[in-house]
């Protein structure tokens, strides 16, 4: 006889219930962030590493998100930026309670709460075979300054405040506006990254760097950017945005083509044409040793 845990593992995931939990949790985390937004000078700020900051706003927002998700989906694992956690069960939540911490602390209104559910290999989503690899299946990215909620469900599409979104139709880099992120915490990959930035400046319509990876991916899904690439990120930075771009008809991949989603933090994304062009632009500069 199977245990309740085994039955839960074998049952298809209820993605609609998971999305509802993610959206509710994102709102709960954002409410805390905004309660601090006009009192940033009073925040207690710790330095984890060079240019890697954490405040009580991050920690309290993360606690609110985790509480909501644990209450509503206790069967799933949790991996969160500030408190860690572990992969467990049929799927695991990846949580960034404040993507764009530096922006937040400087009063720049470009930050978000990012939450994604990664279903593990062997998990079933609905009628049909089990997944063969870890796969993002639910995503919510909430920008509290613009009150924009980006969401996606595996196989069902991507939305912005309930309206379907799609990646842009731009076909060439010379017509494209692309986003990126500069090395700011880990500079070990700068020799790989800087040539890609130099080339993008010369071959695209424009390059933007706004400092919140989750929103860069969400804006790519919404067609505001034609593509986006960045190196040296964390899994929780890209988990939700990866699914949103994919469900908007685009590509969001591990830059090295090794992992099923960019868990290593080397991401390239865009519509089909622009993502392919960005990959071709980046490939000559990559050090294969970094992929290990």
From TrEMBL:
GO terms for biological process: inositol metabolic process; phosphatidylinositol phosphate biosynthetic process; signal transduction. Keywords: Hydrolase, Magnesium, Metal-binding. It comes from the Bacteria. Mg(2+) binds at residues 81, 96, 98-99, 237. Its EC number is 3.1.3.25. It catalyses: a myo-inositol phosphate + H2O = myo-inositol + phosphate. GO terms for molecular function: inositol monophosphate 1-phosphatase activity; metal ion binding. PROSITE patterns: IMP_1, IMP_2. Gene3D superfamilies: 3.40.190.80, Fructose-1,6-Bisphosphatase, subunit A, domain 1. Transmembrane segments: none annotated. It is an enzyme of class 3 (hydrolase). Its cofactor is Mg(2+). PANTHER family: INOSITOL MONOPHOSPHATASE, INOSITOL-1-MONOPHOSPHATASE-RELATED. Belongs to the inositol monophosphatase superfamily. This is Inositol-1-monophosphatase. It comes from Bordetella genomosp. 9.
């Amino acid at each position: 006889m199977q245990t309740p845990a085994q039955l839960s593992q074998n049952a298809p995931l209820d993605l609609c219930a998971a999305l509802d939990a993610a959206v509710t949790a994102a709102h709960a985390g954002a409410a805390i962030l905004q309660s601090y937004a006009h009192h940033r000078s009073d925040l207690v700020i710790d330095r984890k590493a060079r240019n890697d900051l954490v405040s009580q706003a991050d920690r309290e927002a993360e606690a609110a998100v985790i509480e909501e998700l644990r209450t509503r989906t206790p069967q799933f694992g949790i991996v969160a930026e500030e408190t860690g956690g572990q992969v467990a069960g049929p799927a695991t939540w990846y949580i960034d309670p404040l993507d764009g911490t530096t922006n937040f602390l400087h009063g720049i209104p470009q930050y978000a709460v990012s939450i994604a559910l990664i279903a593990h290999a062997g998990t079933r989503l609905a009628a049909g075979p089990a997944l063969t690899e870890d796969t993002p299946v639910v995503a919510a990215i909430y920008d509290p300054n613009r009150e924009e909620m980006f969401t996606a469900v595996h196989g069902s599409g991507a939305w912005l405040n309930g309206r379907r979104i799609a990646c842009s139709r731009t076909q060439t880099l010379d017509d494209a506006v692309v986003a990126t992120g500069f090395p700011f915490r880990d500079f070990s990959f700068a020799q790989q990254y800087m040539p890609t930035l130099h080339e993008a400046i010369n071959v695209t319509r424009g390059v933007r760097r706004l400092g919140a990876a989750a929103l860069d991916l969400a804006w790519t899904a919404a067609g505001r950017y034609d593509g986006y690439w960045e190196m040296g990120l964390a899994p929780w930075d890209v988990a939700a945005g990866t699914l949103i771009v994919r469900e908007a008809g685009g590509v969001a991949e591990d830059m090295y083509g090794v992992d099923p989603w960019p868990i290593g933090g080397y991401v390239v994304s865009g519509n089909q044409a622009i993502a392919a062009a960005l990959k071709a632009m980046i490939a000559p500069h990559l050090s294969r040793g970094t992929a290990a």
